[in-house]
Each structure stands twice: as C-alpha cells, then as structure tokens.
Specification:
Blueprint lengths: L1 H18 L2 H9 L2 H4 L5 H7 L1 H11 L7 H27 L7 H15 L14
C-alpha cells in the first residue's frame, strides 16, 4: 500500500510539473517569441508534448496499476529525451556554446524515478475450470 501511495505522489508531482509548461508555451505563442526572438519554430511544438503527458500521468495517479504502460511510456520518453539533450549539450560545448547539463539531469532523473515507481505487472488470473 505504501508503494502505491508513493507512486501516486510521484505521478501527481511529475504530472503537475509537465502541466506547468502551459505558461511558457502560452507566453511563447502569445508574444510570438518563438518566431521573433528565438527564431525557433519547433519550441512551441516541443513544449506541447509535455501537456498531454502531464494530463495522462495525473489520470494514471488515480489507479497506477491500471495505467502501467502509460507510466512506462512517460518514463522512457523522459529518458530518450534526456539522451538527445545530452548529445546536444556535448555538441554545443564542442562548438564553443555553453549549455548546462542541469536540464538533462532533471529529465533523466524524472525518467528514472518513474521507472522506479512503476507498478509491478499484474499476473493473469486463469478462469476457474470445473
């Protein structure tokens, strides 16, 4: 019971963090900063991926064992995203652009924590044969 409660708490925190991306996304879109300042049309699209993941994790928090695949997807999504960000950060440094590894570490930790609290697979129950 304690493990399920811990899983629920982690899912709510990560879900809310993902939903918090709504504000920077809104500001980017409202002020067209993605186009006029950053000249990066992919950022709003990229940020929009976090929002449905946040909603799904909040939904999964109600009954984590029934949403195991969604939690696993969110975990591996964070890990793969962190791996890509790590490569980009290394390449940036090679080309003389300073980029912090802090965001890489945060995303990888989130993925690892989600994997750590992933509910165990439920065993299939064989129908009673008389």
């Amino acid at each position: 019971m304690k493990r399920e409660r811990l899983t629920q708490i982690v899912l709510v925190i990560v879900g809310l963090v993902n939903l918090a991306i709504l504000y920077p996304l809104y500001m980017d879109l409202r002020h067209s900063s993605w186009l006029l300042v950053q000249k990066n049309e992919t950022e709003p699209m990229f940020l929009s991926f976090f929002i449905p993941v946040g909603v799904a994790l909040l939904w999964a928090a109600r009954r984590p064992s029934e949403h195991r695949s969604m939690i696993a997807l969110a975990a591996w999504w964070n890990i793969s995203h962190g791996a890509v960000m790590a490569i980009q950060t290394v390449q940036a440094r090679i080309h003389g652009v300073h980029r912090s590894f802090a965001d890489v570490i945060v995303v990888l930790v989130i993925g690892g924590v989600l994997l750590a609290v992933l509910p165990a697979k439920r065993e299939a129950v064989a129908p009673f044969v008389a």
